[in-house]
Specification:
This protein is of the alpha+beta class. The protein has one domain: 60s Ribosomal Protein L30, Chain: A (2-Layer Sandwich), CATH 3.30.1330.200. The chain is 22% helix and 36% strand. It is built from 3 helices and 10 strands. The protein has helices at residues 54-59, 65-78, 105-119; strands at 2-5, 9-14, 18-24, 28-34, 39-45, 87-92, 126-129, 135-140, 145-150, 153-156. A 5-stranded mixed β-sheet has the order 1-3-8-9-10, with no helix packed on it. Strands 2-5-4-6-7 form a 5-stranded mixed β-sheet. α2 crosses α3. The longest helix has 15 residues, at 105-119.
Length: 157
């Protein structure tokens, strides 16, 4: 099955599934994968910190990096994924408006992600971060392959 994660959403799947998200600009796209358990998940988080709107974060933790990332990991663990086997990749966190972007949401999303991963002793295997182009992610759970499409160009992450 193909599952599409919209902005502020998370999808998980098993070996026969493909997870997709579109229009990653300043948003974080985080893909985690257990190659042995053949389970994985994809988060499309919009904002770095949930403290700006705790009610919204409670209603939809996937909107925020600081609440969505732990939920993604917990959900994949609940499906049989193991931390020691996880392959973690990130995309997005760009500057879709160029250097004039006042709030630097993409940079802040990436900083919060790195702090969360560091505190939990988790390393990123690959990333496609920054820039001004929007990205689409196709994540094949059967192989763990992540294809990033941006500006008509596809690359494997």
């Amino acid at each position: 099955m193909k599952y599409v994660a919209v902005v502020g959403d998370m999808k998980v799947g098993r070996k026969e599934d493909t997870l997709v998200t579109h229009a990653l600009g300043s948003c974080l796209g985080l893909m985690i994968y257990d190659p042995v358990g053949q389970v994985g998940g994809l988060l499309h988080a919009m904002l770095p910190l949930s403290r700006i709107n705790p009610q919204k974060a409670e209603a939809n933790p996937f909107m925020f990096v600081d609440t969505g990332v732990p939920k993604l990991f917990k959900t994949v663990y609940d499906m049989g994924g193991q931390k020691s086997r996880l392959v973690v990749k990130a995309a997005g966190c760009g500057r879709p408006l160029g250097n004039n972007e006042m709030f630097k949401i993409g940079e802040r999303n990436y900083t919060v992600l790195r702090k969360l991963l560091w505190k939990n002793n988790i390393l990123l295997e690959a990333e496609d971060i920054g820039g001004t182009a929007s990205r689409t992610v196709h994540f094949d759970i059967s192989t763990g392959e992540v294809i990033i499409s941006s500006g008509g160009v596809k690359k494997t992450l």
